[in-house]
Amino acid sequence: MPDPMTRRPGRTSRTPVPGWSALACACALSLALSAVADEGADARMKALAERAVALGLEEEPIAGYVLGLPLKDHAHWSPRAPEDIARIDAAEDAMLAELETIDRDALGTAALKLDHALLTERLESQKGLRVCRPELWDVNHMGGWPVMLARYARFQPVATAVEREQALERWSALPAFVDQEIANLRQGLDLGYSAPRSVVERVIGQVDGLATASVADSPLSGPAGRSDDSEFRTAFEAVIRDRVNPALARYRDFLRDEYMAEARTELGVSANPDGEACYDASLRGYTTLDRGAREVHELGAKAVAANMAEIAGMGEKLYGTDDFAEILERVREAPDNGFSSEAELIDYSREVVARSREASRKLFLALPEQEMKVEPFPDFMRGSGASAHYEAAADPTQPAYYRIDSEGWASETRGSAEITAVHEGFPGHHMQLAFAFTQDKTPLAQLSFNSAYAEGWGRYAERLAEEAGIYSNDYAKIQRRAWPARGMVADTGLHVLGWSREKTVEYLKETGRFGPDETEALADRMAMLPGQLTAYDSGALEIVALREQAEAALGDRFDLRLFHEEVLRHGNVPMQVLRANVEAWIAGTQQVADGKTSAAP
User: Which residues are the signal sequence here (predicted)?
Assistant: First the structure.
């Protein structure tokens, strides 16, 4: 999965935006505009997009570093005080009201039309997600602020005297940020909101790892190590030792001694006030699709049944049995499908990344040159239940990272390691995101994100890797089919349909994909990212359907590399926009082949 940059899920609307086909046609084929552009509307749209980007970067400065968007300064954390949240909500409402007065069809360029659509999605989604009150229960081992501190330390600029001064200002202010977080969580408890107790335990471990690390070993000391200014190095290390670490210890103690006892034991977000409404908003935000929880659950169950039928056929050929559980047990227990050490798992994953990069050349017109390194988690995250993930870097001269939870090597399989490596690397997230950074997009398009597109591509890449012959044996082919779509079933079951933790864990264990500890961690992950796990296969099913539609329409004229180019070149877009883009590309390809128009640039 891509590393989460925000704690709010998605940037999407509740209702479809009209005119998607016309928008995609303009984006994909550069057709002549049907109306004269309104220059006033163009200027207003540009100004509104700039305001939205500035507000988004104020909310989550880390997004600026990851996405290569310029920040006003480098001295602040995300604003988390109630008055700041109210101010941001009011600013978003004002922007949405103004946006509704701009006629999208009057805009003069495809980029502005796309910005209008993306901003409508973003603002309506943010408004809908307010029902969740995420600031009141943000204790999150997946993408909570303690995890993100290491990312801030990695990107904090210190090249100039001004930047070094801002670095000291930001990190000196962390105690005030921590105090605000504690106040928010106390208010949440008073109002009936909390994170699950099992998640709180995981976060305590992460925070303790940061708080007790020596300054020399702390991942938060990175800015000092990157500077030649000895005075700054001394001052920054003192801030970490005397201000940051004590503040983190105070937060750890609050969670352990006060919050834990009052945290909910139920995993489902329905245990919080307005929990089912929160799940609906989150599901829509992550998937960008108009599907309710029960529809998603049923669609996932059908996909799981189809996958199990394929596994039964494979098991009959390989092992002489069609029993699902027996097949997966044979796979997991195969002597040549395990690892003898953590180092072996890491080395093997690096080899798979290198191999899959070469094999992916036939799948795309060109591969990004940016390096992706495979590295284990930093010490403070080890054993905390965080998932393997991809960390992007907008600067192509800097490496991206596939962070692997290698501490679970004893229960990992080679097949599963291959699947994860292609999901995070080639032809998965690194191909997707490193390629996107090379495309010309507006700042708002760079900032826009939804999980269905990102994780849908990652899941599609797992299938693509099999087509490209990347998997070295049948273990990965079987395990690849055992897990997909179960997130659609388990996530909705946990949050809406009343599944217990025990029922959820047992359902996940049936896949044979994860060991006991990983399965428990996966349940806690679902608890803190309600709806997100449905996005993988919701998005993948859409991409597969679009490919099948293109293959049927174009026949011999279908070029897989050009299809992938069309899916990826616009960046992270909602599923409706993706469908409109691909359908416009299909129509344009047919017209070019028929000699009715020229090829799109």
Answer: 1-37
